[in-house]
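Posting for a labmate who doesn't have an account.
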Amino acid sequence: MAYASKDLSVLAYANGFTLWHYTTADAADDVDAAGYFNGASDLLRTGDMLLANCAAGGPPVAGLLVVAANAGGVVGIAALTPLGTPGG
């Protein structure tokens, strides 16, 4: 699948930093892929963080993503850091 803008929401904003939430049926490996968040390049800034709920509808994978770069419409995301363990 692909990035869906309707699944990205702001949780908090302060001092030029935004904490986002993103939920998707996509696997965590897909969300980590280069260019996945390019459609949000006008919203995401370097240093922003995203709490991600991946594989919605299946065994969930939750994690933290950091916007590592954003230039020329290309968003670079640091690899998903898992939070908790599925089913644990």
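Reply:
Got it, the structure tokens are right above this. The longest strand covers residues 61-71.
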